[in-house]
Amino acid sequence: MAEFSLQLNDDQLQIQQWVHDFAANVVRPAAEEWDEREEFPWPVVEEAAKIGLYGMDFMAQASIGDPTGLTLPIAMEELFWGDAGIGLSIFGSGLAAAGIAGNGTPEQVAEWAPQCYGTADDVKLGAFCVSEPDAGSDVSSLRTKAVYDEAKDEWVLNGTKAWITNGGIADVHVVVASVDPELKSRGQASFVIPPGTPGLSMGQKYKKHGIKASHTSEVVLDDCRVPGSCLLGGKEKLDEKLARARERLNNPDAGASTGKQPAMATFESTRPAVAAMAVGIARAAYEYSLEYAKERRAFGKAIIENQSIAFMLANMCMQVDAARLLLWRAAWLSRNGKYENAEGSMSKLYAGRTAVWVTERAIQILGGYGYTREYPVERWHRDAKIMDIFEGTEQIQELVIARAISGIRIE
Q: Among candidates 367, 288, 353, 360, which has minimal Cα distance to 323?
C-alpha cells in the first residue's frame, strides 16, 4: 500500500508539467474553434496520440502502474484546465476501457482495451453505453436487452442508448444491457460491440450547452449480434451471478449480496477522475479572474483592491483547493484501500459544485465582458455544469453518501 502524501514524486511532477504544456500550447489555442464548430477535434486528439498522451500505454501507466492513484487525476486536471470539451474528447475513451477492465477477463482486457485507443498512426475511439432515454440515474431500469442464441453462441442486443460520449463514431462500444429484467440491476451484463458490427448505428447527435467539442449522441442497437466471447466476464460467471440473484429474489435472507452492477462498478472507479475534470475547469476560471482583477482598473485602482472582489477570489481559491484535496483522498483510497463513506461520490459532488460556483463568480468578476464569448469564462461556466450531471447527478451522489454514512438504504 502506498503512503498517502500531498508531495508529488518526480515522475508525477514531470507528467503534470508535460500535460500542462500540451494544454497551454495546443489545447487552449484550439478551444474556442472546436467549441464553435461543435465537432470532434480529431487534429488535437491525433496530436495527443503522437506525443503519447492519448493511448493505452499512458492510461495504464497513470492508473494501474501508479500505486498512489494520483497520477491520472493530476493529468486530467491539467488537461481540463486547457479545455473541457477537448479534454473529454481525449479522455472519453477511458470510460470504455475502464468498463472493460472492471468487468472483463484478463484475456478480454488485453484484446479490447487497446482497441479503444488504436495507435499514434491510427487513432481509434471507445464509447461506454449505459444511459437510456428513460433510464439515466436509475440504471436498474435499463430497457436494452441482450438475449442469448445458444445455437450460434451469440448475443442479440436491442435498445437505444442516450447521452453517449463518442457514441456511434467509436470503434469499440461497451454496452450495458439487461439479460434478466426481473432481476433489475442484478440481471445486467456488459458486452463489447466490435468495430463494424451490423445493427449498431448512431441516433441523434445532441446539441449541448457546454463541452461542445465532445461528441455526444444516441446509440441504436437493432438485432445487433455479437459472439459469445464479447460478454465481459464470460457466460459461466454471469450464470453464477444470475443464480445467486434469483435465489435472493425468492429468499431475501439467503446468502450475501451478488456484487455491484456493471455500470456502477465502472462509475465508482471513475468518480475521482470526474472530480479532477471539474477542478481543472474551476482552477482555470479562478486563475484567469485573479489576473484580470489585478489588471482591470476602475475608480482609479485595480478592482482586486476592493474587498468585494478580493474576498470572492479568496473563496474561489479555497474552494478549488478543498475540492482537489477531496479528490486526491478519493483517488488514493480507490487505488489503495476502499471507500468507507462514499469518498468517491463526495469528491465528485463537491468538485462539480465548485466548478459551477467558481466559474459563475468568474463571470461576475469580469462583469459584462465575462458574459461575452470574447473571454473564455463564459465557456468554462457552460462546460462546468455537466460536472453536476453526468456519471451520477449531484442528487445521486448525495443518495450514495447518505446510504454509506447511515447504513440504511435511503430511497
A: 353
Q: Exposed, middle or buried: residue 184 (CB in 10 Å: 0-12, 13-18, 19+)? A: middle
287: left (phi over 0), alpha (psi -120 to 50) or beta: alpha
**Spatial separation of the C-alpha atoms in residues 32 and 30, rounded to whole Å:** 6
Q: Is the dihedral of CA 311, 313, 315, 317 positive or negative?
A: negative
Q: To which H or E segment does residue 328 belong?
A: helix 307-336
Q: Residue 220: what are its φ and ψ, rounded to 5°?
A: -105, 130
Contact 215, 166 (CB under 8 A): yes
* Cβ atoms of residues 177 and 191 within 8 Å: yes
Asked: is 126-250 a CATH 2.40.110.10 domain? The reply is yes
CATH of span 10-116: 1.10.540.10
SS3 content of the chain, % helix, strand, coil (to 5): 55, 15, 30
The domains of the chain are located at 10-116, 126-250, 262-406
Q: Is 391 designated active site?
A: yes
CA of 386: how far to CAs of 35, 160, 331, 399, in Å? 15, 22, 21, 19
Inter-residue contact 70 to 328 (CB < 8 Å): yes
Which of 182, 287, 391, 398 is catalytic? The answer is 391
CA distance 210 to 149: 42
**Tens digits of pLDDT across the chain (411 residues):** 778 888 999 999 999 999 999 999 999 999 999 999 999 999 999 999 999 999 999 999 998 889 999 999 999 999 999 999 999 999 999 999 999 999 999 999 999 999 999 999 999 999 999 999 987 667 778 999 999 999 999 999 999 999 999 999 999 999 999 999 999 889 999 999 999 999 999 999 999 999 999 999 999 999 999 999 999 999 999 999 999 999 888 876 655 454 555 555 556 667 899 999 999 999 999 999 999 999 999 999 999 999 999 999 999 999 999 999 999 999 999 988 888 889 999 999 999 999 999 999 999 999 999 999 999 999 999 999 999 998 889 999 999 999 999 999 898
Q: Which CATH number does 262-406 carry? A: 1.20.140.10
